Model the fold of this input.
Amino acid sequence: GNSVTQMEGPVTLSEEAFLTINCTYTATGYPSLFWYVQYPGEGLQLLLKATKADDKGSNKGFEATYRKETTSFHLEKGSVQVSDSAVYFCALIQGAQKLVFGQGTRLTINP
Amino acid sequence: ETGVTQSPTHLIKTRGQQVTLRCSSQSGHNTVSWYQQALGQGPQFIFQYYREEENGRGNFPPRFSGLQFPNYSSELNVNALELDDSALYLCASSLGAGLAGGRGETQYFGPGTRLLVL
Done:
């Protein structure tokens, strides 16, 4: 079945550092890919998405490119802020039914 | 445009009891999905409702059941609560479960209901 594997955390960086959180997936066909973010005590917020190969999703300085050849959707940000501290989830969907999530990566940014 | 709302925000129950959680979908959305998120884990799909019918179910026992109403709001019911049911329950709404070949419709999440079973 479909699955998502994320880089294990926690990840701790200093403010203004470069961020990469790795995400790879297993799926038949062409899933859509997502990054969601969860701040402490809150639900999930959609961060960005990509629906086909070579698409780049971007939002709030975060970017991820749908790489079908490597089945990856790594999340990047050039300069992180303290306010980016949260848990980040990579997910895929095929059809309009269920999202399949990775285990999440906890990110802490120190000032 | 209102977002997805859930109630209650927190709930404490004892083992064996029953619980009902509620979700109002985002304006214009006709599909509601429910997820369970255990502490430190990613969300797991429970089921989805489209136009008042169940439209797919994850690996959860029958004591997890749901409803969707004509206004597309939804309820999640859990009977015979167990300690392992303690989790954050997330509702997500989307548009297009019924679209032909419905591909990758984005799901928007509510803030969740945190359930503690003692």
Q: What stands out?
A: The mean pLDDT of chain B is 91. The first strand of chain B starts at residue 5 and ends at 7.
